[in-house]
Design a protein that fits this description.
Distance between the termini: 94 Å
Largest sheet: 7 strands, antiparallel
Helix content: 55-70%
Shape: elongated
Structural class: alpha+beta
Strand content: 5-15%
Number of helices: 20
Number of strands: 7
Radius of gyration: 34 Å
Length: about 450
């Protein structure tokens, strides 16, 4: 019964998709003895009166067996009646007789009939599998019924229902639903698919987020498949494509990075602060060929702005903007309790500003509100601190939302910037600090 209901709905859909008046007007204007019957059959088909349409189209075929239009509308009537073998025979006859001007329309009809016939066979097997309790097999066969010509959305919706509701395979359900939405835009089936995707969205985003976190810890070659799985779950999740760009940049391959930048551009995800923080970006921007290709991707104006943003001064300006927005904190600790991660003396304050010192190897951090401190540490935090980029310990170490910078020259055992909105900001801030450290001239060792 379920199969009959599906088939009864699908034949009219297929006829609508073909647009009953879809034969080229020049071909329809051909004069013949059976023009009245042809027009009458076409009208009856538009009203889903398939039995009457078949009788009239057969009359036209008897009047002129060589008129491809008669075979065409006989085939359409048989298709509406779900008699696919007879429909296919007549469509093939029409195809053999059709003039060049009408051949594309007749080929489309023949393809639709073949796909409906195959889909009908798949659905029959799917119904049998479902009755037997073979849910996974039934879902695949319903999907195959849809895939045969993508003109039977009820098959797809049934497959998605089984994938999500019975098999706990939301990613497979989403894949099929997206196909319906993209293949039949504006249709009731597309609206149904969109509604079902909305219900699945929270779990799809959860799956994509977990996959991106997994991929971020892998080298690019291993991460590709994991990021592909994230995109299959939720292709709208921006972190998929940002993580891909970060890994591509870390791989050192300009070609890989360019491909990732194109994907970001296609998805309108180009962010200059993000791009400036990518590993090796400052050096790549010195390559005229890379810069030329980058200009093709993001435009000359943004490429120029990126060069500025990726420079040491641009990285300091980025950190200063975060400070003004209240996103940075400053932590200092001393006298670490042995065997623990605690500090006997510690203080944490907001960062209100950040700028280069005159030397170009020191950053002046301006401090404001106290965020917390040990009882005897209040006197140890003046209005500003200096981060000296020259010592090896100034190379930032990322630890969650704290970016450790090593000891200072006044006895504190650790200095760190803390970042709000971690982990979104922790990575670009860490990258900026490392870029500044790398740009600072290393001290020259004195010869002994």
């Amino acid at each position: 019964m379920h199969r009959q209901r599906l088939a009864a709905r699908l034949a009219p859909m297929a006829l609508c998709a073909l647009a009953i008046s879809g034969l080229p007007s020049a071909a329809l204007a051909l004069q013949g003895a059976n023009d009245v019957q042809i027009e009458a059959s076409k009208q009856l088909l538009s009203e889903d009166r398939y039995i009457e349409a078949l009788a009239v189209a057969k009359d036209a075929l008897r009047v002129d067996p060589a008129d491809y239009r008669a075979s065409y509308y006989v085939a359409m009537a048989y298709m509406g009646l779900q008699q696919y073998d007879a429909a296919e025979t007549q469509a093939n006859q029409a195809l053999a007789q059709a003039p060049a001007s009408a051949r594309a329309a007749v080929e489309k009809l023949a393809f639709t009939i073949r796909s409906l016939k195959q889909g009908n066979q798949n659905v029959g097997a799917a119904d049998a599998a479902l009755a037997e309790g073979l849910i996974g097999k039934a879902a695949r066969l319903y999907e195959d019924g849809w895939a045969a010509g993508r003109n039977a959305p009820d098959y797809a919706l049934k497959a998605a229902e089984l994938y999500s509701g019975r098999l706990n395979q939301p990613v497979d359900a989403a894949r099929v639903l997206r196909q319906v939405r993209e293949s039949l835009p504006g249709s009731p089936a597309a609206d149904s698919a969109e509604a079902e995707l909305g219900k699945l969205q929270p779990v799809l985003r959860q799956i994509a987020t977990a996959k991106v976190q997994e991929a971020a810890a892998l080298p690019l070659d291993e991460a590709r498949a994991v990021l592909g799985a994230a995109a299959a779950a939720d292709p709208s999740y921006p972190e998929i494509y940002r993580t891909q760009a970060q890994l591509a940049a870390a791989s050192g391959s300009a070609g890989e990075l360019e491909a990732s930048l194109k994907e970001l551009a296609r998805r309108n995800l180009v962010d200059l602060d993000f791009l400036a923080a990518l590993p090796g970006m400052a050096g790549l921007l010195e390559d005229p060929q890379f810069l030329l290709r980058l200009t093709d991707i993001i435009g000359a104006s943004q490429a120029d702005m990126l060069k500025t943003a990726a420079s040491p001064a641009g990285r300091v300006a980025y950190l200063a903007r975060l400070a003004r927005a209240g996103k940075l904190g400053f932590f200092m600790g001393a006298r670490q309790v042995k065997g623990t991660s605690n500090y006997r003396f510690w203080s944490r304050r907001k960062v209100s500003g950040l700028q280069y010192a005159a030397s170009g190897c020191e950053i002046v951090v301006s401090l404001s509100d106290q965020l917390g401190a040990s009882a005897d540490a209040y006197g140890y935090m003046p209005a500003s601190r200096i981060i000296d980029l020259r010592p090896p310990t100034a190379l930032a170490v990322r630890n969650s939302s704290a970016l450790e910078l090593g000891p200072t020259n006044d006895g504190w055992q650790i200095t760190a910037l803390t970042v709000a909105d971690a982990p979104q900001l922790a990575l670009p801030v860490w990258s900026a600090l490392r870029q500044l450290h790398a740009a600072c001239p290393r001290p020259v060792r004195k010869a002994r």
